[in-house]
Amino acid sequence: MLSEAVKREIAAAVAESPQPSGAAIDALRIVQHHYRWIDDAHLRETAALLDMSVDELDGIATFYNQLFRRPVGRHVIQVCDSVMCWMLGQQAILAQFDALGLVPGQTSGNDRFTLLPVPCL
Question: Which of 15, 53, 54, 75 is the most buried (most CB within 10 A)?
């Protein structure tokens, strides 16, 4: 359930937009700022506040790799997994994270770090 403070922040973002759905990214960022990720319940509540369908808002949330629809650590580390970066030595970077026990797509046991593979190009 979204807190009243989060709802007020979203309402302020909506007030600055010509239509409620125009504040979708801002609203999702607000939710993520407070909860670290956007769960299904928060997505439903936010969609209602923006007068959008859950599917529309989920489409936005899943399009951007800076919005997280699953739990992440306090610090999110993104490492490119494109072919070009692989050719330029991305494996050496991943080997260093592996030595620390951090595997791409997973969060450390203490919830401090999440390592995510992303395309940089």
Answer: 54
